[in-house]
């Protein structure tokens, strides 16, 4: 009888050590997936915004609106910063759109991170 009691106690101690680590790992995997999803959405939005800039005589506000529309509903447009610049590609004029998004993390794993990660995406089109 005493042996079973000790085994049960050891099992409880092992579970109290392993379960929090397992949950932390699971939350980390979830957080990484959400960050990667936001980065992919941001890259797509930069392509949409630079296309809007090239196809018409769009203003910076038009490009910003195109980017904000492209990131919805998964990301908050209030956290988005848009930069439209003129550049050259092989000597020909082109437009460049850089989007920066302040992504708020759900679980802050690293001290000093502040709960936000700056994600950035740039697209260039002639």
H/E element string? HHEEE
Count, helices: 2
Q: What composes the largest sheet?
A: 3 strands, antiparallel
Strand order of the largest sheet: 1-2-3
Radius of gyration: 23 Å
Percent of residues in beta strands: 25-35%
Helix content: 40-55%
> How many domains would you count in the coordinates?
1
Globular, elongated, flat, extended or rod-shaped: what is the shape?
A: rod-shaped
Given as residue ranges, the uncertain stretches (5+ residues, pLDDT < 50) are none
Structural class: alpha+beta
SSE blueprint:
Blueprint: H1 2-55, H2 60-71, E1 80-89, E2 92-104, E3 116-125
Antiparallel strand pairs: 1-2, 2-3
Describe this structure in words.
The protein is α+β, with helices and mostly antiparallel strands. The protein has one domain (2-125). It has two helices and three strands; from the N terminus they run H-H-E-E-E.
Write a concise keyword list for the protein shown above.
three-stranded antiparallel sheet, alpha+beta, 126 residues, single chain
Describe this structure in a few short sentences:
The chain is 52% helix and 26% strand.
């Amino acid at each position: 009888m005493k042996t079973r009691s000790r085994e049960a106690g050891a099992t409880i101690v092992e579970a109290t050590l392993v379960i929090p680590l397992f949950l932390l790992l699971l939350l980390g995997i979830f957080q990484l997936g959400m960050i990667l999803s936001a980065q992919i959405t941001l890259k797509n939005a930069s392509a949409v915004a630079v296309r809007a800039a090239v196809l018409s005589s769009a203003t910076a506000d038009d490009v910003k609106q195109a980017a904000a529309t492209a990131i919805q509903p998964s990301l908050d447009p209030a956290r988005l910063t848009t930069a439209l610049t003129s550049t050259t590609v092989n000597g020909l004029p082109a437009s460049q759109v850089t989007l920066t998004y302040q992504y708020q993390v759900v679980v802050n794993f690293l001290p000093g991170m502040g709960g936000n990660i700056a994600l950035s995406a740039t697209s260039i089109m002639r």
